[in-house]
Amino acid sequence: MLQRQLSLPRADWSARSGIVPSLDGLRGVSVAIVLIGHLLLPLSLVGISALGLKIFFFISGFLITRLLLAENKANGNISLPDFYIRRLLRLYPVIIVYITLVVAVMLARNQMVKPIDVASVFFYFVNYLTVYYDKLGQSMGLPVGMLWSLSVEEHFYLLAPLALVFVRGDARKMLAVALAICVASLSLRIIYAHFDPGIVNTLELYWRSETRFDCIAFGVVLACLTELQVGRRLIEWLSTRWAFCAGVAMLLISFAIRDNYFQNTWRFSMQGLALVPIVVGLVFAQPFPILSRVLNSRALIWLGSISYSLYVWHGGVTFLFPWLPASLSPPLLACAELGLSFALACLSFYVVERPILRLRKRLMPHGGKKQAEAAMAKA
């Protein structure tokens, strides 16, 4: 059995289909950070989960852009219908099962189900509905607050693939678009904070799509850099221990600054920049080989594979099992929530998500199939 590569060889830096080393492990780390923040840490430290979501966003932007660029190189175009069908098959099955169960439980308990709450999940406006309820001093009736991040992602992917098609798969032009998005998101946060200073004391800028697009766009920037000669030279420059450590230091500093204005405006940009050398070091090089080995371990790869189901189901554990908080001490409650989250996620992944993923692979663009076959022929 061949050992899994720990980083991409230079010949594979440019966009192509296939497994990208460390990304599955990074997903595993991301969802672990979210779970730690939401279930295991006290409420005052729950903000640590934001780091997990930022890594999710960055990985998503990098990987999806990489695959779309690869499709364009293989086929000479990008099929938007195929892209959106794959997105629906990736996201909807788990959501359908989750919402169906939640609504059934609410009806069985004679609790009111607001149609707009359900619609917000399937039409991806959970984040804006959450902002609306927050302004009213209310909360969402359904346990779907964690799905605000899916809304941000899908709003981004309504625009970014269109932009990539518009620029005809030109990585240089798409890089300019992604950088413009990064600047625009920061500018909007500053403008909102200027005209409504109190907004920095809320989570509105954290939830709104247009103020969070840069978290995904930084991943797009990295994917585009791999297609350019100057970009690959920059990646080489960032593939060092000092660059990796500088990224980690920048990330830590961003969390150490507790000013509300900074946290809701500049911090998102600072963290996006910090993730670039960190991801470069983990994917394109091995400045610290032990980290690469850990990220490519079977345990973290498996955790990354169930990360989506785990993220969805962990948000509904206390709703589905309301007797837990009253019957257990805080440490036991945290362990019970974690155990039930994994049980529900595994059931969801192996019964629902995995069979649909097989169907999704059949819809992979023909160019991707040709590339895969070519790679097998060379092996």
Layout of helices and strands:
Blueprint: H1 23-40, H2 49-75, H3 80-108, H4 115-122, H5 126-136, H6 148-166, H7 171-195, H8 204-207, H9 213-225, H10 229-238, H11 241-256, H12 260-264, H13 266-283, H14 289-295, H15 298-305, H16 307-314, H17 317-320, H18 324-327, H19 330-362, H20 366-378
Helix pairs in contact: 1-2, 1-15, 1-16, 2-6, 2-9, 2-20, 3-16, 3-19, 5-6, 7-9, 9-13, 11-13, 16-19
Describe the model:
The protein is mainly α and 379 residues long. Helices cover 74% and strands 0% of the residues. Helix 3 packs antiparallel against helix 19. It is globular, with a radius of gyration of 21 Å. 40% of the residues are buried. The C terminus is likely disordered.
Point out poorly predicted stretches: 365-379
**Residue-averaged pLDDT:** 91
Question: What structural class do helix, strand and pairing data support?
Answer: mainly alpha
Alpha-carbon Rg, integer: 21 Å
How many domains? The number is 1
By DSSP (H or I, 4+ residues per run), the number of helices equals: 20
Coarse shape: globular
Beta-strand percent range? under 5%
Main β-sheet description: none
Distance, first to last CA: 13 Å
| Helix content class | over 70%
Kindly state the number of beta strands: 0
Instruction: Report the order of strands and helices.
Output: HHHHHHHHHHHHHHHHHHHH
